[in-house]
Amino acid sequence: MIGSPDVVAFTKEEEYGQSYPDPWPLPEEFSVPLHPLADSNPWAKTSYAKFTKDFILISEFSEQVGPQPLLTIPEDPKVCGTFDLNYFSLRIMSVDYQASFVGHPPGSGYPRLSFVEDSRVVLGDSKEGAFAYVHHLTLYDLEARGFVRPFCMAYVAADEKKIMLQFQELSLRFSQASECLKAGNRRAFAKELQRKLRDLEYTHSVLQREEGLQREAGPQRMYSAHAVEKANELANVEKSIYEHRDLLKQISSYHRRPRRDPHAVACQKCMSECLSECEVLLDKYAKLSSPFSYSEKGSRGPEGQVDDQRGEEEPEEDEEEGVKRRPSYTPQLIKAKSAKCFDKRLKTLQELCDETFYEATMELLKETEKSFRGDWCYLHTRRLDKALRRKQKVANFLFEEDLGDDDEDEMGTLRPFCAVNHAIDNFVLLNPPPIVLGPEPLELDSLEPPDPASETSHTQESELGVGESHLESSPSDQTLETQESSEETKGSVSSDKSGLDQAENLQSLASTKSEAPDPYSDLTPDPDQNTDMERESSSDDMETTAGEDEDNGGDQTPVSLLEVVSELEASREDEYEGVNGSALLVPIDTACCMAQEGFLYEAPEVVPGLSQGSPPQPCQTLVVNQEPQALLPLQDDYTVGSPCSESPAAGLELPVGLLGDAVSRASLEDGSDCTMSASTGSDRAASPLGYGGMVTLRQRKKAGQGALRFVRQYPFAMQALWCLLSGRTLVVLGADEGRVRRLVAALALFVPAPGKCGERVQAWLSCPFTLTDLQRWKLIGLQRVASPVGSSMLYSLSRYSRYISILDVDQKTLRCPPYRDQLLANIADHRTYIRRGSTFFLHVQSTLCHLTAKAFLFTFTHHLHLPVSFAEGPEVVEARRRCFLHEQLGLGEEDSQILLYLSQLITQRYLQPDTGSSAAAPCFSFNYTTSVLYKI
Amino acid sequence: MLRWILGGREAQSSVEKSPVLCIGEEQPKNCFTELQVLKGHFDIVRFLVQIDDFRCASAGDDGLVLVWNVETGERLQELRGHSQQITAITTFTCNNEVTSHTSLITASSDRSLSLWDPDTGNRVQTISDLQSSVKCLLVLERLGLWLSGGEDLCVWNKDFQLQCHRQNHSDTGVTALIELPKNCIAAAMDRQIMIYRLSVSTDSSVSLAEIRCLSDHNDQIRALINVTDGLFASGSHAGELILWDAIDWNILAYEHILWEEPQPSTEIRMAAPKPSEMSIQHLSTNGQLILAAVGSGLYVYSVLTKSVMAYRKVAHDSNVLHTMLLSDSELMSCSEDGSVRMWEIQDLPLPAEPASAGFFGMWTFSRSNKQSGPPSKKVLEVPNLRMLELTGDLIGHSGAVQMFVSFREIALVTCSADHLLILWKNGERQSHLRSLALFQKLEERGGL
């Protein structure tokens, strides 16, 4: 029995695994973890969803008609298909998660605004096949019940896993959108209050005047029913004024409230602006009301005097108003009773929010929608890829897309999204988010160990991360804790959720003074008024006053509620791409080309300080003013991504800075068309993303197409590519700008270390160049002109001919040193069977990736550069190096030059001082070889 | 070479260089395969001075003096103070018992003299409101004195105190100063060389006595150098090279460099035929050889045999501005045409040079020779004539290369009218150094 082959085989298999471990295991940080869902068959689960792709739904719980869908992103009705939005809205809004307190809270005479934190839940409707991340929020509306209007934003997808695994990221993105929307809403609300107050003051003055007249007319000590009614009305108006003033005060104190929600970080500048705006208003109305309240204290006798005062005050006020605000606005009388609840028209979402902020929110949501396109596998792969490339910092700069070295710096910063582009100066330093990724915390943790370099500075954070991820692994615990904490915090200022402490501390630090949440006592009305208060208030909107400062976050959430643990940064500076795109957009002349490339970009002059060595910080500071566009996005310009480098962004919520963001957005945008079906492409056809600023993957693929055509068209393409790869500046000479630019864009794929801003490429130059230009640019598009300028240009061409190779587009010739080796024959085969640009691009990328790896190996192999023993002379080392290159790597003489150049770049990069770029000028290496002229 | 660029539509001759001097792109003997462009000046850079093994100072028409680290290319100091162009710069080394400290003395057209500390960038001493601007400086380190020459000849001590002053009788003033044995000074003034004797009396007062006036040159003296302890040489605008005895100031040799007149050719000239340029722009020596930059040509004169050793009439496309003998057989020259050329003296059979007269005439833009009358044809027929072979050229500057300083294997520094300095380095050596630094850093970091 024991000899039974089955048994042996079975046990053997187990033993093999243990006793013979892989002799060359990859270091853990470089290993690619298996896809977490690898065991489940992706085709097994068919979706019954009635919508074609994921979308964002915004719904409202209308006090008139109940839950109703407001809009979807994208707005295309095809997206939802036959999916019943109404029904789904009902599902997601049927959670009355706020339990708003109606009426006056005890101990306070005034209606209170409820400051409700957002809540985040994942809801599912398995019957419909729809799952949603739902973000509930409330907006203020003076006319609404309790002054609040509940809304929700939902990310609806067919795949539950996708939502669960992307929860953090979704939560972050939606929190930003929500904060933005709420900020805009507060502004709109304050404005509305102001208008209302003005109306009330006006009504009050009119009533007073009427009453005074009546009293004069009527007999003394006789109160007609009419007079009593007037007096009541007056009292109601007064009460109403108080209430509204108090509301204004409340709304202006909004910012001082400690936030429990770690994601709720708003732009400090916006906040303080809004705050000061409110304070101005408050001051104004406080001043106005002082005579008013004074009059209340006194008997009715000096009413006339008061009237006089009013009379004096009002024109002044009007003047002030006239100067300050809309001069056309005339205060209106407010009727005692306003329309019934169901008669009035509720404001739309757009009206509830300041326009700028609304637009920004919509942009943000659109961006979010875009960034989550693709299925979970795709998103996961991209994230893995990014995480892996982050490990290989030494040689990545050569051909890979830049991930931004600023990551470490950015790690600790929490940058709020700001609709009006208050840029960088409002950083809040926070711990970076721990990486929490649903069910596989361990695996993903291993994916993201802190970088050795950053380890010291971020130990704390990594600890935190680990801790949190353990917590996170059981979502139900989390929910419990959330509930507890929300109960705890009901009346108190601070919550003691471990993860949030710091956020709060900082938050409260950031806000100028933290006030107690109940600062209203100073405005308690006089006793006289309290009696009045007993009466029914004069206007309907006053009747329903709102709730306690309380939220009971997860109490009734049905499916699963993952409370957000991590604090996150991330600002999606949407604005800038538009601006920067349009600034540098260069349309090609369609006549002369095959419309392969959409737009070509102009690589702008590079600020020396921005050159590749410089740390990200200076760039950041350049951005401070309102137009970060000009300089900044170039950082990531023209980087060349690896095949799988669709990369970043959605990633592990690694805080991507401004720059990183740019890339990520760009690449996300593009990445989607890798996996998504063709139908998704349509709405992005004319995407104006980032032209000029950065080159998207999409553009790079276009460039791949151009490169493919170049390779197929020119038999000497190999020589041209060799020039670029071996560091010899290639000048593309031609009379037709479009043609030259296209070719430069295509060839730029092959420029090693093109720099963050693509500073090594000059797409179009129409003046003679100098040596420094050659040093700076590795690929130059040069205009051929037949004029005196042209001759001086030709002079510079011939003068510096030893440093350059010249590709003449018009005559189809190439003048460069001869190249006879085989390495590039692989990518520059003009009989290639590759037909598609993107395929060729991937092919090129893999070749370049190989080259990079070889160069890395060569650079860091000690004995190839330095003697092993003292006895060895430089010749021995030299011989060893040659042997390595020729025999071990199998490279010819010319191929070795590529490797030597790449190695030199790596060395120079590695030696760059960590802080700041060195004062020394860059080196320019060359060699003296004869050139030959290649013709077609 | 350009034909293909121009597409055969234009004439190439105006751009193309002389075929004789075009070495081509294959230069196996040229080890300068890496360069660094140093920016900082904003006008013509005329002077380079070596401070120590790795530092040099550059000065030019913008009145700035910049101190550079030649190894790294870093700018170490920026010495600001002169309001006008620098006319002369020299180093001044004070030797204490323990250390020696090198300072810089500069003279400017703003009629001031300054002493700088290149370590700190401080202006240690300054004298302004001189009666005339100083054209040349000479430091006598042995005596702790230095001289400034211009319209006046002044002697200063190291504390910038005027020791002695001598008015000049010549219009042009002193253009060059060299030190001779026995406390003597030779000063070039127009066509004459004046010999002065410096006497330091017991109370350390200094007096300057005129001893002799050598007026054997027929034209303005352009260059004056010490060859050995007992010899000095002078060159004039008319191409006269005179070798003098430094002790008794007699003429040891007189060489009148006269290139043969170019043959009229059938080509269309840009201008009327000019007499060839014979001005001696610069002299350099290593004790055995004297290298003279004559017009756009080079001329190697052997001191031992007192004869021409090698020459090249058209070494550059334009006037040669500075020359240097690197060794007994290697030399280097720079020119107004923006290039630096490296030459080797090789034993080659005659004829030394196939003269291409047409180009020669075309590329000579310097002012016409003052000498009246047709120059006598003198053929340089010397039995052991050798050949100057071009071994490499450095092209980078877009303006005239004014001067260069060699730091041996570290680098060659060139300065130019295009406001730039270029450090030319040996790429292989640099690569090796970088590798060293890389592994050092790797070790410091303890890994990648």
UniProtKB/TrEMBL annotation, chain A:
Task: Name all UDENN FLCN/SMCR8-type domain ranges.
Answer: 46-907
Q: Which Pfam families match?
A: Folliculin (PF11704)
Listed under GO cellular component are: cytoplasm; guanyl-nucleotide exchange factor complex
One GO molecular-function annotation for this sequence? GTPase activator activity
Quote the biased-composition stretches of kind Polar residues, using this chain's numbering.
504-514
Q: Where in the cell is it found?
A: Cytoplasm
Renumbered residue ranges of the record's region Disordered: 292-329, 440-558
Keywords, in A-Z order: Autophagy, Cytoplasm, Guanine-nucleotide releasing factor
Q: Where mainly found?
A: cytoplasm
Q: Which InterPro entries match?
A: FLCN/SMCR8_DENN, Folliculin/SMCR8_longin
The Acidic residues compositionally biased stretches are 310-321, 539-553
Q: Which GO terms describe its biological process?
A: autophagy
PANTHER family found in the cross-reference section: GUANINE NUCLEOTIDE EXCHANGE PROTEIN SMCR8, SMITH-MAGENIS SYNDROME REGION GENE 8 PROTEIN
Record family assignment? Belongs to the SMCR8 family.
Q: What is this protein called?
A: Guanine nucleotide exchange protein smcr8a
Q: Which organism is it from?
A: Parambassis ranga (Indian glassy fish)
Encoding gene, per UniProt annotation: smcr8a
TrEMBL record, chain B:
GO cellular component terms attached to this protein's record: lysosomal membrane
Checking Gene3D superfamilies in the record gives: YVTN repeat-like/Quinoprotein amine dehydrogenase (2.130.10.10)
Name of the molecule in the record: WD repeat-containing protein 41
Q: Which domain of life is it from?
A: Eukaryota
Q: Which GO terms describe its biological process?
A: regulation of autophagy
Question: WD repeats at which positions?
Answer: 57-78, 104-126
Q: Give the PANTHER family listed for this entry.
A: WD REPEAT-CONTAINING PROTEIN 41, WDR41-RELATED
Where does this protein come from, organism-wise? Parambassis ranga
What InterPro entries does the record tag this protein with?
Answer: WD40/YVTN_repeat-like_dom_sf (IPR015943), WD40_PAC1 (IPR020472), WD40_repeat_CS (IPR019775), WD40_repeat_dom_sf (IPR036322), WD40_rpt (IPR001680), WDR41 (IPR040102)
Q: Does the keyword Protease apply?
A: no
Q: Which UniProt keywords apply?
A: Repeat, WD repeat
